[in-house]
What we know:
With 355 residues, chain A is mainly alpha-helical. Helix content of chain A is 66%, strand content 3%.
Amino acid sequence: xxxxxxxxxxxxxxxxxxxxxxxxxxxxxxYAERRVSALMQFRWGPNRVGPFGLxxxxxxxVKLLCKEDLVPERASKVLFTIAPALTCIPPFLVxxxxxxxxxxxxxxxxxxxxVVDSPVGILLLLALSSLTVYGLAIGGWxxxxxxxxxxxxxxxxxxxxxxxxxxxxxLAVLCVSGTLNLSEIIYxxxxxxxxxxxxxxxxxxxxxxxxxxxxxxxxxxxxxxxxLPFDLPEAESELVGGYHTEYSSMKFSLFFMxxxxxxxxxxxxxxxxxxxxxxxxxxxxxxVQPGTLPxxxxxxxxxxxxxxxxxxxxxxxxxTLPRFRxxxxxxxxxxxxxxxxxxxxxxxxxxxxxx
Amino acid sequence: xxxxxxxxVVASILFAIGALGFLLRKNVLVMFMSVELMLNxxxxxxxASAKSFDLARGSAFALxxxxxxxxxxxxxxxxxxxxxRLKATVDAEEITNLRG
Amino acid sequence: MEVLERVAFYVMAVxxxxxxxxVVVNRNPVASAMSLVGAFLAVAGLYLTLNATFLSAIQVLxxxxxxxxxxxxxxxxxxxxxxxFDLPGIGRIAGFGLSVALLFSLISLALGAVARPxxxxxxxxxxxxxxxxxxxxxxxFEMASxxxxxxxxxxIVVARRRKPEEEEEEQA
Lengths: 355, 100, 172
């Protein structure tokens, strides 16, 4: 096989793995959401279908597929149909830029643990996550219903506001890492806490170097994924279902999938930027040779575990905190997070330039 | 072989389409979008030509122009909103305050 | 790889032109806006074929991610209907003729251009662009930030909903 063929084959295999991971996590998340919420509210949750109710997501899927696919009479049909797909595509694309595992050597070639290793990876991630808003806004507008329109409007305003704070908090991390490439950002975090002996640069997890940026990014992540306490675009007590009020059947479930894959995507970004990616303290002293396939798989497992913890946190917060009012949401975004993020960049820049 | 001429042709077509939209449409917002399209085609020419000289410098030019475009869109949309409050329309043919 | 580059260029170019046409043809402003997003993404693809990776990411981030969301937001805020179709008047026929003339003159200009060898001294990566900005073009860079600040203040002043007493003052 020629080099090009190997390249494309590896590309396809990696694409398949990442895609399966992203899709496979959705039913697990749906199940986890319902069980965790039940746990927190002293209920049983779904426990009838299969052992411990494990088959509940599949039953849900069958139910959704069998439902009638309604399109409102005065909706604009093309936009109404593409909107759910528009919410689903960007999170999938995000997953293909995430380095989920360290690279390993195969037949003398380096196989990277990422589908696309872009030199401007982090910018592409921000760009893609800002494209998610189109699905929600278009879906809300095309339904031709006042609740949907309000939901769509809210989502676009909310996304623009929190995108800023998120982008600027990332800027501070980039100051510390000195690169836009995601794989390199992880390689600069290959200690748990401490400095690189050779260069004297920070080499621990970025969460310790940039705690403020982490908090800002985390809060913005809740807003970007439209999760409680910032789920104003679909606030069921005010807007029926928000932007997806008029949707049913598979189109509705695509919105649902988009939200969960978005959560997986944003958790992956958090793990890469702040929590050391696939690195774990003591990972190198386990006796597994770095640069081999077992080491890669170990890295993948660590990465998945970290995402799992963050996803649990997302679910936990949803069932703990009440929803913010809309003006409070805007005030937090513009008057608290944005100035804090700017201050953080200023201080980080001064410290990095001074050292 | 794709050369800079091919990029010029694409940019020309985009620019002409933008001009077409600006001249034919009556909705102020769509006219504004057409202007954005023309700006983008100019950027494309800039970057394509920079490939023969200094791509970093050309990209820097284009970046400044993107910043200007962002500022321009903000101001333009604010004017359109103010106009809509005043006239309750975005039809360019009904906005004739400055016509003598 | 050579063939692949050509394919990428033609796909992106055709996509850009088609979505640009859709912007002009669509009578539904939201559909126009979405087509324009498509055109911007295609232009970002063209930047990629030019190896301007950083600019391509910025194009998606600023144009598709921020500017068009703002457009969409305003369209939804004003709740615009479809534009009614009316017969073209003399002005619009003249406009059509003008843009066709523009198209042909621009293309003839473009075809007359001589393709110089692509011998760029530097690439389009973030670090290299940063070097340019923080050495030769520091002043334009600072001016751009000032411009954005001025625009921000201007937008707030123009789009602000005035209180009734302020309106009376202005009338007087």
